[in-house]
C-alpha cells in the first residue's frame, strides 16, 4: 500500500506559524516601546499602532480614555512654564488677555517677553484659564513676531517620512545659534484631511477649504484658508516654499467655525473628547500665536483662541506626546507648558514628526 502524505499541515507547523504571527509584531512593538524618541509609553504604543494599520483601534481607545469632561473645579495654578531667560523690557507689549473666571491668578493673561532680537521682544508667553464652563482647563500661549523672525518647516522621520530632505528631522548645529522658537506640526496623513508641500515636493494633495500654514520663499509665515484667502490657491503655488494643511479652520473671522458642530476634529465624531490640544493662529494684530490647552474639546479650544484675538486659527497635533512649544537661546531650551511630555532636545537631535522653527 502506497503512503500518501496528508495535505493538512502538522500541528507542529501550525503552532510555529501561530507563534511567528504573534512574535513578529510583539518584537516590533517591544522595540518601539524601548526607542528613545521622547514619547510616553502610551504615546509610543499609539504611534506603533498607527504605523501598523491600527489607527481605528487607537482612535477608539483614545475616545474611551479621554471621553470624560474635565473637572468643574477651577484650576488654582497655571501650567505655563515661563522660561528663565533674560530679555529686554517690553516694548509695545500686546494687550493682556482676560479670564472669564472671577478671581484671576497672579500674572494670568499678562504677556511676558521671553526672547528679544536686537533689543526688540519677538516672543511673549502667558497662561489663562479660558473657560467658565470648564474652569479646570488651562491654556499656555506664545506670541511670535513674523515680521522679524523667519520660519522653516522641518520634516520628521515618520511624518511625512521619506528621505533626501534639505530640512530633515532636526535643526542643524550650524543653525542652532539663530534658533528662537519652535512648535509642533499637525496630524498624520490619514487624520489631517489636508495637504503637505515643501522643498518642491507635493507629499499629500492640497485640499480646498483646509486650514493652511504657508511659508513664503523669504521665510515669512502666513495662515489662511486654501482656495479662499488671497495667495492661498493653486494658481499662486510658486509663491510658497512650504504649505502644511490640517483639518478645516477652527476660527474664521474671529469666531469659532460653525463646522465644529460636525466633522472630524481629533477624537470622537465631532472632536468632543477632552485632551491636550495645540493650535496656531494669526491674530488681528498680525502676530502668530501658538497655543497648548487642555484637557479640552475642539469647540472649547476654538472659543479660547477667538477670545485671545485670533482672526483665523488652525488646530495642530494633540495628546500629551505631541503638543510642544520651546523658546531657544544659544545657551538654553525652555518649555512654554509644563505638561509637555516630550524631550526638549528632539528638535535638535531628531523628531518623528514635522515641526516649525523660527530664526533671527
What is the chain-wise order of helices and strands? Answer: HHHEEEEEHEEEEEEEEEHEEEHE
Structural class, judged by helices and strands?
alpha+beta
Note the total helix count. Answer: 6
Work out the strand percent: 25-35%
Shape designation? globular
Please report the distance between the alpha carbons of the first and last residues. 88 Å
Strand order of the largest sheet: 1-2-3-14-13-15
Poorly predicted segments: 1-8, 13-21
Helix content: 10-25%
**Total count of domains:** 2
Number of strands: 18
Whole-number radius of gyration?
Answer: 22 Å
Mean pLDDT: 86
Question: What profile does the largest beta sheet have?
Answer: 6 strands, antiparallel
Molecular structure report:
Helix content is 18%, strand content 28%. Helix 1 (11-34) crosses helix 2 and helix 2 packs antiparallel against helix 3 (55-65). It has six helices and 18 strands. The radius of gyration is 22 Å and the shape is globular. Strand 6 and strand 7 form a beta hairpin. The longest helix is centred in the N-terminal third of the chain and has 24 residues, at 11-34. It has 360 residues and is of the alpha+beta class. It starts with 10 loop residues before the first helix and ends with a strand. The chain has helices at 11-34, 41-51, 55-65, 189-192, 298-307, 346-349; strands at residues 112-117, 120-128, 138-144, 150-154, 179-184, 196-198, 201-204, 211-216, 221-225, 240-245, 251-252, 255-256, 275-283, 288-296, 310-318, 325-328, 333-335, 355-359. Mean pLDDT is 86; it is low at 1-8 and 13-21. The strands form four sheets. The protein has a six-stranded antiparallel sheet with strand order 1-2-3-14-13-15, covered by helices on one side. The chain has a five-stranded antiparallel sheet with strand order 4-18-5-16-17, with no helix packed on it. Strands 7-6-10-8-9 form a five-stranded antiparallel sheet, with no helix packed on it. The protein folds into two domains: 11-65, no CATH class; 112-359, no CATH class.
